[in-house]
Amino acid sequence: MLEFSGATIFATRFYAAIASAQSVGASLKQAKVMMKSAFLDDAKLPECVARKGVDVDKLVLVTNALETRSFHRLQVLPVDGATRRTN
């Protein structure tokens, strides 16, 4: 079982990575690195157990809003510096 400080470090990094649309596998790796860098080498690091056929390195729980929405692009024209909408 993780100590409280180790659990806090893990949760902070893991969920920050999940929230930034990274895969579960990448998030877990980042959290483990943070735990090790906090001198918790002797802590029992969490392990990921997934159902057969689930690739945690490809499993993304949230998506980036900027990638999923259709926005009008703004183009700055160098001649007069005016900003105009383009589709």
Portion of residues in beta strands equals 5-15%
Helix content: 25-40%
Question: What overall geometry do the principal axes of the alpha carbons give?
Answer: flat
Order the strands across the largest sheet as they lie in space. 1-2
Order of helices and strands: HHHEE
End-to-end distance:
53 Å
Based on CA atoms alone, the radius of gyration comes out at 20 Å
Which class do the helix and strand fractions yield?
mainly alpha
- List the uncertain runs: none
Largest sheet: 2 strands, antiparallel
* Number of distinct helices: 3
How many individual β-strands?
A: 2
Average pLDDT across residues?
Answer: 78
Structure summary:
By secondary structure, the protein is mainly alpha-helical. Helices cover 39% and strands 9% of the residues. It has a two-stranded antiparallel sheet.
Structure description:
The protein has three helices and two strands. It has helices at 4-19, 24-37, 65-68; strands at residues 73-76, 83-86. The longest helix has 16 residues, at 4-19. The termini are far apart. The chain is mainly α and 87 residues long. Helix 1 runs antiparallel to helix 2. Strands 1-2 form a two-stranded antiparallel sheet. Strand 1 (73-76) and strand 2 (83-86) form a beta hairpin.
Structural features:
87 residues; mainly alpha; 39% helix; flat
In terms of topology, how is this protein built?
Elements lengths: L3 H16 L4 H14 L27 H4 L4 E4 L6 E4 L1
Antiparallel strand pairs: 1-2
